[in-house]
UniProtKB/TrEMBL annotation:
Record GO terms (molecular function): oxidoreductase activity, acting on the CH-OH group of donors, NAD or NADP as acceptor; quinone binding
CDD domains given in the database record: SDR_c
Matches recorded under InterPro entries: NAD(P)-bd_dom_sf, SDR_fam
Protein name: Uncharacterized protein
GO BP, one annotated term: fatty acid biosynthetic process
Pfam families tied to this protein: adh_short (PF00106)
Annotated family: Belongs to the short-chain dehydrogenases/reductases (SDR) family.
Species for this entry: Xylaria hypoxylon
TM stretches of this protein: none
Amino acid sequence: MDITGNALVVGGGGGIGRACAVLLAKEGACGVVVADLNLQAASDTLAECETITPNKTFKGKALKIDVTQEYSVCEVFSDIVQTFGRIDYCVNCVGIGAQEATDITSLSLTEFQRFLDINATGMFLVTKQASIVMRSQEAQLISPNSLSRGETRGCIVNLGSASSLVASAGVLPYTASKHAAIGLSKNSG
């Protein structure tokens, strides 16, 4: 891969998000910001990034983020722009999964809303702020080694799951929120 810019990984404290942050560092990103609700987990991921990067000028930061709160998302993006100047890659990995199957007749509105707040609204807030930042920054070459690849202001990757495409019995709130993630990503333009 040709990773040369600054990356933000939301939900980078564990799982797929952690793997993404570490891979971005390993592939030579200039900077990696690991944002997670669990600041200690984000810091642990960042420590791994710092040990694996081949980039001698690597700059990293761990930040706490609550994707259900717009002010928290805005603060993280403001901090990143102040510290790094730009965001070239935003990987949105934050999400919760269903722990057990639940029939719709016993599902509470509170539980359904919790999934939407984190998996759909959280993705919306992060995608919105990343779009604002990326649209305002100067375009840069995608690859200094391959001019034919053109320019970009940045790239946003929103993670879904198999449930983004196929309904699974008993996990209505998860499936609905993951379907929303695909719709959001397809329409963010």
